[in-house]
Automatic annotation (TrEMBL):
Superkingdom, taxonomy of origin: Bacteria
Domain GFO/IDH/MocA-like oxidoreductase: 157-224
Name recorded for this polypeptide: Oxidoreductase
Gene3D superfamilies: Dihydrodipicolinate Reductase, domain 2, NAD(P)-binding Rossmann-like Domain
Family annotation (SUPFAM superfamilies): Glyceraldehyde-3-phosphate dehydrogenase-like, C-terminal domain (SSF55347), NAD(P)-binding Rossmann-fold domains (SSF51735)
Length: 332
């Protein structure tokens, strides 16, 4: 198994490490946190006595105990941490979005190429069997494709803190937060992987007092159809997502965490499409990332790098159309 170091001790990091253990893809060997107490609490969850705990990034990346780092810190920290990792010869798996803007992303890609390292953006849902089923359905019906509506809205547990005058990371420009750069990334990955590069991007956002978007409507224009995206962290939506094929419609229960697929036409109720889904949605991603690194699969890596580059460019164009400026932009 590949030796793994992690940055970030939140639930998503725990989920990735659990997936790594379940699939025997990566072995946790080192944990970085700003405080040793948090690092120890995280390591203890996995009863791993041989895991090294580190509170200094330079020491962490100088370690020879791991060759791959998984980064799940606040968005604005991804660039500097990934850059330092690559400079130390580490392969990087970074949570989406991997950077705050396309300039940072291009810098990391060029550095990774120069250093011979992998830079992988963790968009876990595109590796799941259920997403592969969507791709197969699309391939079989591509001549009838006529658009899509993708929705992913969940009331954030941190929104109440924002309303109380606090500054949670996910709702500040300092940490490159907002709905688009959180839940919206899932739906943009859906569009890019399934439909390709949009010709035009327009984002109508509900801007919060902190300067980030709480929710919004995004339109991606393609040559023959539009993809309409609804994202939000200030309200809940239970609306399914849909991909249109003339009279026929493919229904997804979500634009992000996809659990069910069904098909409908004008004459009948939706019929469910059988599919499978792991209890841990990161299992497929962990398996694929480990395979790419172990096999040095440059063809697949090039494809995923292209997806990530397009997604990060769409994110920036959408943000610009809504007038959202991150503090990270000032460093360009």
């Amino acid at each position: 198994m590949l030796k793994l170091g992690i940055i970030g001790t939140n639930w998503i990091t725990q989920q990735f490490v659990e997936a790594s253990e379940e699939t025997k893809s990566f072995q946790l060997t080192e944990v970085y946190s700003r405080t040793e107490g948090k690092a120890k609490v995280f390591a203890d969850k996995f009863q791993a006595d041989d895991v090294t705990l580190t509170t200094d990034l330079e020491t962490f990346f100088s370690s020879e105990k791991f060759s791959v780092v998984y980064i799940a810190s606040p968005n604005s920290l991804h660039f500097s941490q990934a850059k330092l990792a690559i400079e130390h010869g580490k392969n990087v798996i970074v949570e989406k979005p991997s950077t705050s803007n396309i300039h940072e992303f291009a810098t990391l890609q060029e550095l990774a190429k120069a250093k011979g390292c992998f830079l992988l953006e963790a968009a876990r849902h595109i590796y799941e069997p259920i997403f592969k089923k969507i791709q197969s359905y699309l391939e079989e019906n591509k001549d009838q494709l006529s658009g899509a509506t993708l929705s992913y809205m969940k009331y954030s547990s941190r929104y109440d803190d924002h309303l109380d005058g606090k500054e949670p990371n996910v709702f500040t420009t300092k940490f490159s937060g907002g709905a688009l750069y959180d839940l919206g990334v899932y739906t943009i990955y859906d569009a890019v992987v399934l439909f390709g590069i949009p010709e035009k991007v327009d984002y109508q956002a509900e801007i919060l007092s902190s300067g980030v978007d709480g929710s919004g409507s995004l339109t991606l224009k393609y040559p023959n159809f539009d993809v309409n995206i609804i994202v939000g962290k200030t309200k809940n939506s239970f609306m399914p997502s849909e991909i249109y094929f003339g009279k026929k419609t493919l229904l997804l229960d979500s634009g992000g965490d996809i659990n069910r697929l069904s098909e409908s036409d004008e004459d009948k109720h939706p019929s469910e499409i059988p599919t499978t889904k792991s209890d841990n949605p990161m299992d497929s991603e962990a398996i694929e990332f480990a395979r790419i690194i172990n096999e040095n699969d440059q063809d697949k890596y090039a494809q995923l790098s292209r997806y990530a580059r397009i997604v990060n460019r769409v994110l920036e164009h959408a943000r610009a159309s809504a007038g959202i400026v991150f503090e990270a932009d000032k460093d360009e």
